[in-house]
Write a structure and sequence with these properties.
- The complex is a heterodimer.
- Chain A is an alpha+beta fold.
- In chain A, about 30% of the residues lie in helices and about 25% in strands.
- In chain A, helix 8 crosses helix 9, helix 13 packs parallel to helix 14 and helix 16 packs across helix 17.
- The radius of gyration of chain A is 28 Å and the shape is globular.
- In chain A, about 60% of the residues are buried.
- Chain B has a 5-stranded mixed beta sheet with strand order 2-1-5-3-4, with helices on both faces.
- The chains are: A alpha+beta, B alpha+beta.
- At the A-B interface, helix 1 and helix 16 of A face helix 2, helix 3, helix 4 and helix 5 of B.
Amino acid sequence: MATARLLGASIKRREDPRFITGKGNYTDDLKLAGLTHAVFVRSPHANAKIRKIDTAKASKAPGVVAIFTGKDMTGVNSLPCGWLLPELKIPPHMPLASDAVHYVGDPVAIVIAESQSAASDAAEMVVVDWEVLPSVTNTEKAAAKGSQQIHEVAPTNEAFKWQIGDAAATEAAFKAAPVVVKKRIVNQRLVANAMEPRACVARYDDSTGDWTLWVTSQNPHVHRLLMTAFVLGIPEHKVRVIAPDVGGGFGSKIFLYNEETVCTWATKQIKRPIRWTSSRREAFQTDAHGRDHVTDAEVALSKDGKFLGLRVKTTANLGAYLSTFAPAVPTYLYATLLNGVYEWPAIHAEVTGVFTNTTPVDAYRGAGRPEACYLLERMVDAAAAALKMDPADIRKKNFIPKFSDGYQTKVALSYDSGNYLGAFDKLLGMLDYKKFRADQAAARAQGRLMGIGFSTYIEACSIAPSKVVGSLGAQAGLWESGKVQVHPTGKVSVFTGSHSHGQGHETTMAQIVADSLGIPMDDIEIVHGDTGRVPFGMGTYGSRSASVGGTAIVMSLDKIKEKGKKIAAHLLEANPKDMEYVNGQFVVKGSPQKAVPFAAVALTAYVPHNYPEGVEPGLEETSFYDPSNFCFPFGAHACVVEVDPDTGHVKILRYLAVDDVGNVINPMIVDGMVHGGIAQGVAQALWEEAVYDNASGQLVSGSMMDYTLPKADMLPFYETDRTETPTLVNPLGVKGAGETGTIASTPAVVNAVVDALSGLGVDHIDAMPLTPERVWKTAQAAKSRK
Amino acid sequence: MKKTVSMTINGAPQSHEVEPRLLLVHYIREQAGLTGTHVGCDTSQCGACTVHLNGMAVKSCTLLAVQCEGAQVLTIEGLAKDGKLHPIQDAFWEKHGLQCGFCTPGMILSAHQMLQRNPRPTEAQIRHDLEGNLCRCTGYHNIVKAIQYAAEKMAGK
């Protein structure tokens, strides 16, 4: 009986019935006997010393169970930074600040009460005597002379200086180049805004000395390891961390935060469970932010548009403290991608990380790679404009030719496989590019401003080869585990260390298993997000779940089948070497009638009366997969816009994407991730920005009323297609799809707007978002120059 | 001082002593124990808390529970009848109109009201009418497709 391949099928998601009926199980939904409610007292100042915290009045407020400050948390350490760079300055980051605060939202006390409202009321009664200090929030001013010093360990507010590439070769390339294009590029600060705010429930069991922490985490094992080993000093095995249904992450739920750490500590003090759920206002102030780079970039070119060199100087704002993976984002996840999909004789990049009195900055969807792609694609278009070349032509002239067995870049990485022209040509076909340019000229003649922008991108995902990242400063391995437990009835439980917070693991992973074992998906359970059930795991980020987590499962499936062959061969009195596994049966090669079904082998493994010598009972395998390289999805996106010359309003007319994420397990799910990624990247180009008031250090776009998240009527349907160039790095041939849309879309939109304004003499806009005001002012300035 | 409030949620009578400042959404989640209605913001932007109050889609974070005395409330838990999904629920599943699922209950209840008012909306009308509901995962593409699909299915009945 032939079974249809499940890999590559758009199977409806198995997790959806609970979500569409209101039965999702998110952290804040949890009800526990004796539950208490926590509210954090936070700094209203960007930079201040704490003279005194007076909790006396608040402690007597109705319903208050306990109030703790940093001084109560003796023996507790700083929240760790998990990625070290040479000479990195690491300031202490205590779960509750005792002596000084460094950003608006920095927590100083936890108020625990019988109800949420009682905790909120009492929190307002906590009196903090602040000595307010000057602050600095601006990325470029942070390290300037005269700026307020934030941490003792960093006298100039510089956390690190780091470089990559060949400085001398790049200098020589620029000296000899006939054309140099130089631009300033600002990649503004963003807030992830997963729809579910962060939350935790911490419970200490006094009878066993065990903790359970339910937390909105993309990586519960990492949360547990960092919290127990580095901060609280409690045995790792005494803490079970559960990340139940999680309502989106986009990076912001990777990191170990103050709140879950404090609640885990405090539950033991009060011997009652504690729940904390972030308000959206707190989320804006305390979820790690993303991006925030200011860059001077230069491209050296030949007169006919061949790239000769790229030189980049970036200042990256890290915020007030080093969040969990902060130093990696503007270095190894950013500058290593500056090669893009092009051939470069020389590249050099310098990055300075600075502390400011702002919310810590860490990975946000794409993490470093969107910043690299934006810079490169903006510079490519600026270079084309300088030479009066078509932006499609300059790309084609510089693409790395098609390859399938590796390409060494000038910035450390070695790409797996690629066909960049193939994806771009497919995009141009979808677009009918020649016709567009004719339409654009006709529109211009009528005074209408239409524009098109391209983005031909690459990203490094499937994070990551442990040995490589270890040599680059990572303090963790980045492999993944996959355990396959076959029950006596032939039903299968699969335990993955990756975590789904919208990605659809319960479907995609089950497709991998069902396809491999030839059994129905209904017979397969996917377990994730629980350190009490999953052996270990590094979690989900960096588009790694299918490529790294999926591969670990495939390895265990292979072991299951190998063991099954021995058992089946024994039952059939055949040689294990003659066995093969076909459509859910162990079969003697060439004798299809000699077969044992999967479930029969499973039962035999648990009832081993008639069993091969030297084979252990049971049918359960665990594998740990460490990839040999990153995977490198790529593709080509285009955006068509019309700019209203009177208002500066940008309307997206079409958005097209051709992505190559390698083999595709579930096209429907991949398309969905691409759509969502595009929306986030478009929103960076046009609407979103975390704005700090420099004088006060306040986050002024700190609510959904002030920070423009995209709505349905601001976005079009996306026209998506694919090329499929499998990676050779993993046996599934999958590369990763979670971040491509975000990485590619921002420059496509900005390039389109610049193209629309090009008739006015505009060749660059240095800052985003392209609000009507910014676009209008750019157009007016260009007109007045003419 | 606490006040007693009584209302009907998904056909079941509810009566509790509550603080007058308690929002309807917290009443639904904490007192009635129906956690399908979500809280995604604190400024009435996100729409994750959308329920039907006396037949009208409202954001349950904009009302006090005590304002809802005697009201008929429908939450996401009450939409499927006799174990059969409502066509809009089915459409969101069929068209992959959700990823993390957090905005989904509010989206579905907004869409339900939208199709009651306008059974055959255009794409532009759907997008306009979703103004009060935010989704961070889908880029809205498949949400709009799901509502179009649901409209077709419901009109065909």
